[in-house]
Specification:
With 332 residues, this protein is an alpha/beta fold. It contains 16 helices and 5 strands.
Length: 332
C-alpha cells in the first residue's frame, strides 16, 4: 500500500491489525503512526486502550502479549511500538501474527532500517497486513512535494519561492514540513506564498541563495555570482560550502543530461532533468555556455572543493576564500 492509500483508509476508518512501517524516511512513518494515534480512539478511550511501547525497553514476547489482549469497553486496542528497530530478532514475531485479534491495531515504527522482504515475516506482512517502506525522496522531487503539501492546506506558492525552500532545506521532510507550517501560520490563506514571504519568515535571502547563484552561473553573470558567494562566505552557518557543492554538482549533472537528451523540447527536457518546465530557459542558456567538456571540467572542480570543504589540504584558508576560488574556476 502507498502512503496515500494508508492515510485514506485511516481517514475512512478502515483499519488493519498490523502496520509494519519501515525505511529511511521517518516523516512518512511518523505521519501514519500519528494519524492512527490521534484518530482511532477518542481521549476517553486512550486511557484504557492505547499503549505506547519503546523498542529498547521491550522484546517480541512483550509486544505479542500486549497485542493479544482485547480492548476494555471499546472497539479497538491500539499499540504503537516506537523505535522498533531496537527490538531484537523482530522477525521471530511471524508465527504470532495470526494470533492477534482484529480488535487490535499494532503499529510498528521500524525507522532508518528495513527487514529483508524475502523472509517469511515480510511476505506474511505484505500479504495479510500492511507492510510499508518509507523511502527517502530525491532532491528533485522536493519542490513537487512542497507544492502538494501546501495545496492540501489550501495554499499556493510561487515557483521561485518553492525552489528556494527546496535548495535551502534539502530532502529532510520533517524539516521542510516544519518550515512550511511556519509559512502557513504567517501568510494569509488566499495569498500565494512568494520569495518575500520566505525571506521574512524562514530567513532565506531572496537575493543571496543557491537558486540565485545557479541562475548567475547560467547567464555568466560573474559579478552577481561573486556577490552571492561573498554573502555565503560571511554566513557559512546557513550556507556551508559542502551544501553548495552538492547542489551545483546536481546542476552540472542535469546539464550533461540535457546535452545527451534526444528530446530538447521544453517539456520533454524538463521531464528528463526532473525540473519544472518554468526553469528550462535557464538550463538551455547554461547548456549554450557549458558544453559537455566544460560540464565535466566543472564537476572535477566541484570534486576538488568537496574535498577542501572537508578540510583536505586547505591549511588555514577560510570558507569564504574557498568559495571565491571555486566560483572563479567554475566560471572561468
Amino acid at each position: 500500500m502507498t502512503y496515500e492509500q494508508i492515510l485514506t483508509d485511516i481517514k475512512n476508518k478502515i483499519y488493519h491489525p498490523v502496520y509494519f512501517l519501515m525505511g529511511e524516511e521517518p516523516y512518512f512513518i511518523d505521519s501514519i503512526s500519528d494519524a492512527i494515534e490521534s484518530t482511532v480512539l477518542d481521549e476517553a478511550d486512550k486511557a484504557f486502550n492505547q499503549i505506547i511501547l519503546y523498542g529498547k525497553d521491550v522484546n517480541v514476547h512483550d509486544i505479542v502479549t500486549q497485542a493479544r489482549n482485547f480492548p476494555m469497553m471499546g472497539n479497538y486496542l491500539v499499540i504503537i511500538v516506537k523505535e522498533a528497530q531496537d527490538v531484537k530478532q523482530i522477525e521471530s514475531m511471524e508465527p504470532f501474527l495470526e494470533m492477534i485479534p482484529k480488535t487490535t491495531i499494532l503499529v510498528i515504527d521500524y525507522k532508518y532500517k528495513k527487514i529483508d522482504k524475502r523472509t517469511k515475516f515480510a511476505k506474511t506482512l505484505d500479504k495479510d497486513y500492511v507492510l510499508f517502506e518509507s523511502k527517502k525522496m530525491y532532491d528533485s522531487d522536493i519542490p513537487k512535494w512542497i507544492v502538494k503539501y501546501l495545496e492540501n492546506r489550501n495554499y499556493k506558492i510561487s515557483q521561485k519561492a518553492c525552489q528556494m525552500l527546496a535548495d535551502f532545506l534539502g530532502n529532510d521532510l520533517q524539516k521542510v514540513r516544519n518550515e512550511l507550517e511556519k509559512l502557513i501560520v504567517a501568510v494569509p490563506q488566499k495569498k500565494t506564498i512568494d520569495d518575500n514571504d520566505v525571506e521574512y519568515n524562514i530567513g532565506i535571502s531572496k537575493d543571496f541563495n543557491v537558486f540565485e547563484l545557479q541562475k548567475a552561473i547560467c547567464y555568466g553573470d560573474f559579478p552577481k555570482a561573486v556577490q552571492i558567494i561573498n554573502y555565503f562566505g560571511d554566513n557559512t552557518k546557513d550556507n556551508p560550502l559542502i551544501a553548495t557543492v552538492i547542489i551545483l554538482y546536481g546542476f552540472y549533472c542535469k546539464l550533461l543530461k540535457l546535452h545527451y537528451s534526444t528530446d530538447k523540447s521544453r517539456n520533454g527536457a524538463a521531464s528528463v532533468l526532473g525540473v519544472n518546465p518554468f526553469f528550462m530557459e535557464d538550463y538551455f542558456e547554461a547548456a549554450r555556455r557549458y558544453d559537455i567538456r566544460k560540464c565535466v571540467q566543472c564537476i572535477a572542480v566541484l570534486r576538488e572543493f568537496d574535498l577542501k570543504s572537508k578540510g583536505y589540504n586547505v591549511g588555514d584558508v577560510s570558507q569564504k576564500e574557498l568559495y571565491r576560488e571555486m566560483i572563479y574556476k567554475l566560471m572561468n
